[in-house]
Amino acid sequence: MAETVTVELFGSLRRHAEGAATVTVEAATIRDLLEALRDAYPGLAPQISRGVSVSIDGKIYTEAMFQPLSAENEVVLLPRIAGG
Amino acid sequence: MAFDEYDSQNRIFTNVGTRPVRPDGIDKVTGRAMFGADMSAPGMLWGAVLRSPHAHARIRSIDTSKAEALTQVKAVVTRADFNEGASQQDVLDNCMAGEKVLYDGHALAAVAATSRRAAEKALRLIEVDYDVLPHVTDVDAAMKPDAPVIRESGGDESVPDGFSKNVMSMCEFGHGDVEKGFAEADLVMEKSFKTAAAHQGYIEPHACLASLGNDGRGELWVCTQGHFYIRNLCADVVGIDSTQLRVVASEIGGGFGGKTTVFIEPVALALSRKANRPVKIMMTRSEVFRATGPTSSTSMDVKIGMKRDGTITAGLAVNRFQGGAYPGSPVDMGAMCSFACYALENVLSVGYDVVCNRPKQAAYRAPGSPMAAFAVESVIDSLCQELDLDPVEVRLKNASREGTKASYGPRWPQIGLVETLRAAKNHPHYSAPLGPNQGRGLACGFWFNHGGETSVSLALSQDGTVALSVGTPDIGGSRASMCLMAAEELGIPYEKVRATVVDTASLGYNDVSHGSRVTYASGLATIKAARDAKQKLCGRAAKIWGIPEEAVVWEDGMAKPAGHNAGEHDPLPFAELCRSMGQTGGPISGHFEATPEGAGVSFATHLVDAEVDPETGATRVTRYTVCQDAGKAIHPAYVEGQFQGGAAQGIGWALNEEYIYGEDGRLQNAGFLDYRIPVASDLPMIDTEIVEVPNPGHPYGVRGVGETSIVPPLAAIANAVSRAAGVRMTELPMSPPRILKALKDRDG
User: What residues of chain A lie within 8 A of the CB of B697, using their CB?
Assistant: First the structure.
């Protein structure tokens, strides 16, 4: 069931959302979230295609397309996290 | 409960936390271990790679006819022999140049011959007509509007108008209002920093043995941190199906992030396909320096405001990282890490990814974070000096804690930075007296850590032993840790488990051994695979006893009846159930496949004493202490080894290691004689304090430890040297000439 999720964008993405630090979209999962962001803010699409991670309540998800989201979650969009 | 949640509160471990002998130790010290260059095959040819002597040039033509005419030469390849439709175009171009060579050392042709000497002789017969182009190797110079352009396509949509085409992307993180924060400060300090490119310095050069037929089926023996990943890269670059290539990972003589991609492997495969014989390539040390991936070199500006009581009111960092001739420097990671240790109301960190005529950078433990920490922690230390504040107390006052907002966005879950700071403060090192010309430095560091795709299989044998198959190359002792976790779950001795890094045909996909993920992710998968096997063992016991499966529990390495209706039965030990498994239902294996996402972040605090010789500028690190959060140390000796290794590499990076380019754009010091990594006599005994704040995302609470340990050293050593020398050092490495110059400048 999709809920209204508030997403924090990192600074360099904000100009694609009219300068907003946070945006709201309807989403039930991370996949929904990314699709909704692409639709609502096409300027975010290149970064989403290059790869992003999503922090949900401080836990960073990099691959979990079906991870559930709710209106209560703190959701932050991040560049894709990797390592050495 | 999610599969990756902590479930070991109050658990008393029997195997985990002990320090058994490493299973690969005897092989490595006796020479029995097989590394990348140790494998040979009947009919094998030797490959050699022709590399550009120019930093930037258009290739007008390549004439290979004289090389091909040699009887010992069986194949020559150039870009035309690779898959032009590869999806990883930058990987392809870095392995074999197309229209242009982009750095000194860039590969542009390769030869396979019956001996290494013949292959090298043939390289000298290849005639290349270059149109030499202007070049740039410095990050600040590359950002200037009139800099030579390396990639005409320029940067992506994130780059604001007006920047050089060499700026590939821009990123920005933060919250609040930094100008307001600076206005609230009692002291605002701004400094600029530079760090040189450093190489991971792994002792084993890249090496591989490839065999690929014209039918597209092949085998690759290779020294790598990720054989599944490089299987896919190689298949893409040479144009075959990934599962038709079976890749076997050799033992690895160091990687540190530098062996997470391909350089010679697709070349060896292309040569083998053309010659229809196996081909071995071994890089020379010079090739490793010139053509594999060092770190980014960087240029950074940091501005921090602080109140007299040590409260940080605002932090601003501008990070410029060059990543070689291709986009992808870790500046985004660096920018996210800049202020990660501190809970700030006003913070902004900006990053620019810049291309230069240098080899494509590769990951090096916590890519991007050590440089960013160097700049930020240096300014914090300067502020502490100016305001006469204790460096630990200032950091404790501002430290990120559970529930505070990270500078890059999320609120922190359970983390252990404060605990590492307290460990440092309580360590005898912190209050020990200093001698003449000595200074003490302290710095904190952060790294995210990573989960990644993971598959593990655990097969029981009739004699009560366990064959554990993992797909993550063992770059830091992970096989011992996996055996400990399997033994812990099954309730059997550590010696009864053997862990093997198996080939790509034997398991599902496994992400690279990077991101400090192996003990976390493969460890989690091992625990889950063992639990899967335990459940099957309980099922067999239930069958034997004729009771429901739910009425059987696993305790102390035995199946036991439990509950009111289970009846009286003697416990069935692990070995007994293994012995009869053929008759009770067939072979038993546990397995687990998933992408764990609960990798817990890790923080560290390092303490360093350094002594500077004012006459020569030489620096000696006299005492070093690492305090780091490991979540739960599975094999404490390996955890300590990771801490010490990060510190040792950090000492080299801080004091001596440096890629030096000449005016001609050629690397001047492509060897260990001129590129000075620390040796044992350069290092003090590195003391360690393992802090254990459990990671909520791992059954035992494990956090990765392989990367965070290299984050604080650059800053901690710079703070120690700056205090010892009485002058703030802002450029790495702090080699004797740089320190002498700084001392001269200080004295006017």
Answer: 59
Q: Which of B367, B409, B597 sits opposite A83 (nearest CB)?
A: B367
Chains A and B form CB pairs within 8 A to the count of 103
Distance (Å, whole) CA B140 – CA B322:
9
The answer to whether B418 and B397 are in contact (CB under 8 A) is: no
The residues, any chain, with a CB within 8 Å of residue A83's CB and separated by 6 or more, are: B257, B363, B366, B367, B447, B448, B449, B450, B514, B515, B516, B517, B707
Residue with tokens 């914090």: B380
Inter-chain touch B336–A43, beta carbons under 8 Å: no
- Kindly write down the DSSP assignment for every residue of B350-411, as one continuous string: EEEEE--SSPPP---SSTTHHHHHHHHHHHHHHHHHHHT--HHHHHHHHB--TTSBPTTSPB
Nearest to B310 by CA among B383, B417, B407: B383
* Sign of the CA dihedral with B149 first, then B154, B159, and B160 last: positive
What average pLDDT values come out for chain B (748 residues) when binned by 10 residues? 88 97 92 97 98 98 98 98 98 98 98 98 98 98 97 94 96 97 98 98 98 97 98 98 98 97 98 98 98 98 98 98 97 98 98 98 97 98 98 98 97 97 98 98 97 97 98 96 98 98 98 96 98 98 96 97 90 98 98 95 98 97 98 98 98 98 98 96 97 97 97 98 98 97 93
CA-only gyration radius of chain B, Å: 27
**Does A61 contact B at CB distance below 8 Å?**
yes
How far is the C-alpha of B365 from the C-alpha of B516, rounded, in Å? 8
Within 8 A of B198 by CB-CB distance, chain A residues are none
8 Å CB contact of A82 and B450: yes
**Residue B488: in which H helix or E strand, if any?**
helix B478-490
Position B223 scores a pLDDT of 98
Q: What is the pLDDT of residue B1?
A: 66
Q: Which residue among A12, A47, A62 places its CB closest to the CB of B172?
A: A12
**pLDDT value of position B3:** 86
Tokens representing B268 are: 């060896």
pTM above 0.90, yes or no: yes
- ipTM > 0.90, yes or no: yes
Q: Which residues of A touch B409 (CB under 8 A)?
A: 8, 10, 55, 76-78
Pick A82's closest partner by Cβ from B173, B364, B515: B515
A31 vs chain B: nearest CA distance in angstroms? 15
End-to-end CA distance of chain B: 66
> Does residue B722 contact residue B440 with C-beta atoms inside 8 Å?
no
Closest CA to B424 of B383, B396, B384, B447: B396
% pLDDT > 90, chain A: 88
Residue B129, CA atoms < 13 Å, CB-side half-sphere: 4
Residue B47's closest CA among B241, B275, B249, B236? B275
Q: What string of H, E and C letters represents the secondary structure of B496-512?
A: HEEEEECCCCCCCCCCC
Q: Please check the confidence at residue A82 and state whether its pLDDT lies above 80.
A: no
* B171 to A46: CB separation less than 8 angstroms, yes or no: no
Q: B409 and A78: CB-CB below 8 Å?
A: yes
The residue of B446, B450, B593, B642 whose CB has the most chain A CBs within 10 angstroms, and thus the best one to mutate to test that interface, is B450
Task: pLDDT band for A84, please (50, 70, 90 cuts).
Answer: confident
**Which residue from B minimizes the CA distance to A10?**
B173
CA distance B484 to B155: 48
Tell if the CB–CB gap between B447 and A83 is shorter than 8 Å.
Answer: yes
Between CA B413 and CA B421 the distance in angstroms is: 18
Contact status of A12 with chain B (Cβ, < 8 Å): yes
Which of A6, A7, A10, A61 to substitute to test the interface with B, most B CBs within 10 Å?
A: A10
Rounded to whole angstroms, how far apart are CA atoms B78 and B89?
Answer: 15
